[in-house]
Amino acid sequence: MSDPLTRRGFLNTVGTAGGSAAVYQMSMALGLLPGSALAVPFANVEALGESRRKVLILGAGIAGLVCAYELERAGYEVTILEASHRIGGRNLTIRGGDFVDEMGHPQTCQFDRHPNLYFNAGPARIPSHHRHLLHYCRTLGVELEMFVNDSKHTYVHDPKAFGGKPIKNREYVTDARGFMTELLAKAINTGDFEKPFSAEDTDRVLQFLRSYGDLSSDNNYEGSLRAGYKSGGMVTTGVFKTPHEFMELLDSDFWRFRMHFTEGEDQCSPLMQAVGGMDNIITALVRNIRSPILINAQVKRITLEETGVRVVYQYEGKHRELRGDYCLNSIPKHLIAGIDNNLPNDYSTALASIGRGKLFKIGIQMRERFWEKENIYGGITWTGQNIEQLWYPPHGIHTEKGVMLGAYTFGDENAEFFARMTPEQRFEEAIKQGEKIHPDYRKYAQTAVSVPWQRMNHMMGCTAAWTPETRKRWFKRLQEPEGRHYMIGDQMSFHPGWQEGAMSSAHWTLAHLNNRVRTELSGAAVNA
Predict the structure, then answer these.
(1) From residue 218, how far is each of 185, 204, 221 by CA, in Å?
(2) In a domain, 161, yes or no
(3) Which of 22, 329, 338, 460 has minimal CB crowding within 10 Å?
(4) Among 284, 357, 382, 312, which Cα is nearest to 58's?
(5) Contacts from 160-166 at CB under 8 Å and sequence distance 24+?
């Protein structure tokens, strides 16, 4: 005799078929999972009053700028040293005429000079729960607009499935959920699990599955309006599209994680972007910082002392030196070994143990917004090719031209595939692969600019590639200061690659530094 169905066993089945998002929704339907909120602390840097403290900040990325903004308002003397020709770190928006500092392949962007024609080569999305980032956008007056991360009118493309032809996202998702829920609905009636559902459980779950998968009253999936009409629907009766075969859906890898990608914590709607380019966040921070920010100032030596930190840097052809009571260092951790320093051996070992992410993006100016003729207004097309993703700009709707993201690679293999090429070769390869999805792609493509982050000068990587082992062994060691030297940035967070991670790291450091200085000042007052 078969074991009856239990809630645990049922949720395991849901997870196997539909992923974590499906388990979460089903748990809510069964009343097993309450909503929750994550508190994010903000640092309160207290004013120094008549006291004086000098802080050196290495790197003018998001974390360094946030620290400078908060510290100078509390009366600290701050100097920021930035090795690059520009301020912003990996917050990089590229427009016509901009210089792209890639090692061995410097580029000058040839986009038309128009407010809508830009390319966010770094961060491009702002999740609605990234509280630090939204706080600064609100405080500094950075105008935001909606970013369309998920559009069911975009495409799913896998060379191994559907004869290599792209199909609409909405068709794939609707059919996959329909077949999945049909199987689950029928599984409930077998009683083939460890403990019986109650009659109420069975009724609630069946109602949920019929709604979720758009099943018929007898629990069959026969197609759905969610996939779109094959014909009609306005002045004639609508005819549903014929569902794709379930086994054909499984032949594509889209269901493994991409199908649920936009249901993840940082990818779910609503998302936002800065109007006119993500670097407007940088512009707003810099506009509100009075402290000196020296660009083209490359750090050559970091010396920890008992009462401070000395930094030697090259600026305007000369070696110069600064001393600070504290140093906040956002230089990418894998580059520290190339800078003369007296950091302890275990600290240097910890820095060297963390890998570097390899990501690639290419922005392509299109002479016409052809995707809007296909009812695409933002969103992502996924493909099994090296380019991995196509993005359609949600801003500038119905204007003449637009800049598409012609590739966004996450895996090291695909990032290296493009990094080994010249910019011209990358453009050609991106067009060839884009034609597999949009046959007329080539005739619209005008010019491109590409950013392989592992080849960008003064970066040589994108995000910190922590592993569970390196986090367990080294994260706290590097998060805590070494003497009066702090490592900061998204690399020192559990959210590498996101501006929120950089800002959270900045605020953790600011809180630690504030408590330390208050202790110093109270001790000085007692001794006086």
Answers:
(1) 9, 15, 9
(2) no
(3) 338
(4) 312
(5) 160/251, 160/252, 160/253, 160/384, 161/248, 161/249, 161/251, 161/252, 162/244, 162/248, 162/251, 162/252, 164/436, 166/381, 166/383, 166/436, 166/437
Find all residues with CB under 8 Å of 415, minimum gap 6, and list them. 358, 359, 360, 409, 452, 453, 454
CB atoms inside a 10 Å sphere around CB 414: 19
| pLDDT digit string, tens, across residues 347-397 | 999 999 999 999 999 999 999 999 999 999 999 999 999 999 999 999 999
Token pair 């707003």 is found at: 284
229, burial (CB in 10 Å: exposed 0-12, middle 13-18, buried 19+): middle
Provide the β-strand partners of residue 355: 465
Q: Report the distance separating Cα 311 and Cα 309, nearest Å.
A: 7
No. of helices (H) and no. of strands (E), the chain: 14, 27
Among residues 262, 499, 491, which one has the least CA distance to residue 357?
491
Q: Are residues 75 and 130 in the same domain?
A: no
285 with 364, same domain: the answer is no
Q: Which domain holds residue 183?
A: 7-35+171-222+237-245
Total structural domains in the chain? 3
Rounded CA gap, 505 and 461, in Å? 19
Please report whether residue 461 resides in a domain.
Answer: no
Q: Does 312 reside within a domain?
A: yes
Q: List the chain residues with pLDDT less than 50.
A: 1-2, 16-40, 192-194, 528
CA gyration radius, the chain: 27
* Nearest CA-CA partner of 59 in 451, 487, 495, 496: 487
Q: Torsion angle of alpha carbons 180, 186, 191, 192, nearest 10°? A: -50
**pLDDT for residue 524:** 64
Residue 40, domain member (yes or no): no
487's CB contacts (< 8 A; 6+ apart) are 329, 330, 333, 351, 478, 479
Q: 478 and 451 in one domain?
A: no
Find residue 145's DSSP bridge partners: 273
